[in-house]
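Researcher: Structure for this, please.
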Amino acid sequence: MIFIVDRILFRFFILWYSCGVLLVGFNLLPSWLEWANAVFLIAAGVLGGFYFYHEYKIFGLLFSFFVFFSTILVEYLGVQYGLFFGHYFYNPDFGLYIADIPLTIGTAWLMVIATTHALVKPMALVVKQPFFQWIIYAIVGALAAVIMDLILDPVAANVKQYWVWHGDGLYYGIPFSNFVGWFFIALTLHALLWLGVRYLKRTKSYHPYWHSRMVLLYILMIAMFSIIAFINNIFFAPLLTIVLMSALVWVYKRTRRSQ
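Model: Predicted structure, token format:
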């Protein structure tokens, strides 16, 4: 029964994703359908939560809630005080808000951490010493998150205006502090996750259904935002992101085959 629900959920997301690429990419989304953005982010986060639950059971569920609430708190501090990312604010296109923060941002972060975890986990296991596994996993996981943000931010901020930056930066007007913030927040979450996985002795486990789909989700998210960027005459960001993503996926496949 659970496996059937899993398949239905993933197929729903793929359908919603395909519609989103067409409607959002070519600016065909009517104003009355703006709530679809929230559904997309919620669905992506739920996929990440399903993955963590099936891979790590109750710990995975608890960690999913931790990611959701902790990142909303971090985003609140960012919006209110300019901490971590720089000064910015969100436009009301993401559904339910609490303290100027869309709750769907928590689900978006959950998707980021789940997909990068699945992508980087085999790479860490190449190293035999547990401490260095932890260090490599956390650092490469954080870099994988930043690579995704290299395309998310230029499109979301400059093309769709989902959020607006106060100030400027060399990379499409995005402050460098944003990428530093992404790195250290993702680094912290990955470091905590790996400690839990080590404690459970589940570092070498791979869920037969969800693990590969999380890697696919990482690729799909970058592909979607890259398509939107190309359509809107943004070329450097998607090319840079695709090259870096391709290198990560290549290393992932090599290490996965060896295990």
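Researcher: Any notable elements?
Model: The chain has a mean pLDDT of 89. Residues 82 and 88 are 7 Å apart (CA to CA).
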